[in-house]
Amino acid sequence: MGSDTMSNRRATLMHFWHWGSMHWECELLRERMKQMRFRNATWIIPRWCLLLFFLFLMLSGRSAWAQVDITGEWSPRVYNDGMDVGDYTGIPINEAGRLRAESWHPDLPDLPENLCRPHPVDIGLRVSVSQLNITKELDKETGQDIGYHLHVAWQAGEQVIYTDGRSHPSPNAAHKWSGFSTGHWEGNTLVYTTDHLKEAYLTRTGVPRSALSTVTTRIHRYGNYLNIIFIINDPAYLTEPYIREYSWVYTPDQVIPPYPCETSPEGTIIPAGKVPSYLPGQNDLLSDFAVEYGIPLEAALGGAEETSPDYIKKMKTMKVAPRTTTVHYKRSQ
Predict the structure, then answer these.
(1) Distance CA 299, CA 188 (A)
(2) Which alpha helices (DSSP H) does the chain contain, by range?
(3) Is the pLDDT reported for residue 194 higher than 70?
C-alpha cells in the first residue's frame, strides 16, 4: 500500500472523528501503533473508533431504547378525595389561600360560566372516574415523535407533553387549562413540568391554585400499573410544594365515552345576578367536617405545620368541638 494512500486515509480519519476526547484517544492510539510500525494500523483504528462512535450515539440519543411504554388505556384506582367542605388537611395552604377557600359556596359550580368549566389535568386526573388515555404526539407536518398526549375522561381534559427539547413560551403568553408542558426521561420515569396554567382549584370544594403555579409530574409504569405523582408549587397560595400520588391499571379494552356538556341559561339554577359566596367568618358549613370526625377545627384548615408527624402531639392539646352531627356537606360529583 503506497504512502500517499496511507496519508489520505489518515487525513480522512482526522477529519471524520473530530469528537472531543474520542478523537484524542484515536489519535493517541494511532501514534503509538505507528511507532510500533504496524502496517495494518489504519485498519485497526477505524474499527476501534467506529465502536466508540456508535456507543456515543447510543448514550447521547434523545430517546433511550430502554424506556417503558406508557401509552394505552388506563383505568383509575383513585379515591375521589377533595370533596369535603372544610377539609384542607395535608395542604400547605397559606392565609390568602385559606381565605379564598373559606369563601367558596356549594352553589358556585351551578353558575352558567362554571357548568362546563374544565378541570386542569392536575386535578382532572384525581376526581370522579377519570379514565386516562395516553398516545404519542406526532408532528403534523413531519410525523416525527415530539412527545405524549393525555386525554382524561372527566370533562375531556387534554394535555400535550413535549419531549423534543423546545423551550417554554414567554411568561406573557396565554394561559390555558392544559398549560404548557415539557418533559424528559429519568430512567423509566417520564418527568415533565407544566406552567402557563389558568387559575383553578386543588380540591373540588374551593381550595385555590393560582395562575402562577407550576406542576411537576412524574409518570412511572410498574408492569400493568401506572403511578403518577404531582408536585404543585404555588407562590400565591402555598407555603411549600403540595404532593399528591395516584394510580391506574392497564385496561386495553377500555372505551372512554364522550363528555358532552351544555350550559343552561342564566337564572335557570341560580337567580340571575347572584354569585354564591361566603363573607369572611360567615361560612356555616366550615366546621361540620371537623365536628363529624372529632378533630380540632384548626387541624382541618390546613397548613404546612400539620404535614409533620410531630403535629399529632400538638393536636392532643387542642380543643375538639362536641360531636353534634354525623353529616357534613360533601360534593356528590
Answers:
(1) 38
(2) 3-16, 21-35, 41-60, 95-102, 112-115, 121-124, 288-293, 297-300, 311-315
(3) yes
Strand blocks (E) in 205-266:
208-209, 214-222, 225-233, 242-250
The three grid cell numbers given for residue 242, joined into one nine-digit string = 403540595
Whether the per-residue pLDDT at 326 is higher than 80: the answer is: no
Q: How far apart are CA 175 and CA 282, in angstroms?
A: 33
Q: For residue 158, what is its C-alpha cell? A: 387534554
DSSP string, 25-58: HHHHHHHHHHHTT-TTHHHHHHHHHHHHHHHHHH
C-alpha to C-alpha distances, 85 to 205, 248, 286, nearest whole angstrom: 6, 27, 6
- All three cell numbers of 129: 372516574
Location of C-alpha cell 447521547: 60
Residue position matching grid coordinates 389535568:
121
Query: pLDDT averaged over the chain?
Result: 82
Contact criterion met (CB below 8 Å) for 109 and 115? yes
The residue among 246, 251, 292 whose CA lies nearest residue 79 is 246
Q: What is the dihedral of CA 257, 258, 259, 264, to 10 degrees?
A: -130
Looking at per-residue confidence, does 241 or 82 come out higher? 241
Q: What is the pLDDT of residues 196-208, one digit of tens each?
A: 999 999 988 899 9
Query: How many residues can be counted in the chain?
Result: 333
CB 88 within 8 A of CB 100: no
Are the C-beta atoms of 193 and 214 separated by less than 8 Å?
A: yes
200-201 vs 242-250, strand pairing mode: unpaired
Residue-level pLDDT at 77? 85
Q: Rounded CA gap, 202 and 122, in Å?
A: 8
Q: How large is the C-alpha radius of gyration of the chain? A: 29
Answer whether residue 123 shows pLDDT above 90. Answer: no
User: Which residue is it, cell 357534613?
Assistant: 328
How many angstroms separate the CA atoms of 233 and 99, rounded? Answer: 19
